[in-house]
Amino acid sequence: MQRNRQAARLLSITRDLAAAPQGLLPSELARRHSVTRRTVERDLAALEALGFNIETIPDDASPRLRKRLTGAQGLASAILSAPELAAARAAARALADVAAGPVAASFGILLDKLEQGQPAAVRVDAAALDAAQALVTRAAPRPAADAGLLATLQEAILACAELRITYRKGGGADARDYIARPCGLLFGGRNYLVWRGEDGAYRKFTLGHIEAAAPTGRHFDLADDFSMEDFAARSLGVMSEVALDVVLRAAPDRAALLRDFSFHSTQTQEVTPDGGLLIRFRAAGIAEICNAIFGCGVPLTILEPETLAQTYRARLAAALDNFE
Description:
alpha+beta, SH3 type barrels, 4 domains, four-stranded antiparallel β-sheet
């Protein structure tokens, strides 16, 4: 156990030094790790013996000497703490629950490689933390994604290569060909290809409805003003509709249940005089907004817009009609 504590301290000291380009005083390290300065000096000597370059430099404000790590910052930054490694494990499981299989598998392989490069003490502690915490995702069917198709799309995105895509709109029986300039992929409740047409408009294809994708041999330039991050942040789900200004109301006896619930990054909340709660946000994706309202588990009144209220009522009625 003592050896494990020393190993963990050595890793932490390495990370401290890597994050301090001007160096740190041994006394500072001693305070951070609740040990004596003599212990820190032994730890620094141990790191040097392991191949880390520990440089001694003068302190501008005193006659004391500082310790600085040189030439090994890359190695230090690759060393994770036990909580970081445990969080990565939880993220891998969550990704497997909600995202495309090939993407989750690739992340799992990357995590395995990273984990093998960590000291044994970190791996042991991370396993203990991993068993003691859980990351819960919404239970839902996972969208399918063909590994070969996904690889073709990723290659085209990297090469800015135009594609001829055979697509079944709405998953119907009839398919037609489109000339698409692939811009990115969105994974979540469904998996989508975001692409730009020859007319300059951005559209999306559900990956599961793409029958074939082949390069045309032509290439294109990405628009300077396009960002997948911005594209995704404008909506719940995928931005393919006009953004809605949404206003929801929770009754006073339900308001407390929603004060820590976020529907969207633009959300604001306002407590009404009677103790109720008004929730406002602006986003596109009316179907995903309906799903989010239903999934929050708290009865809400949709005040605006009326089109959202009508769609929500229609979806609830259709669900009841299909219930057996």
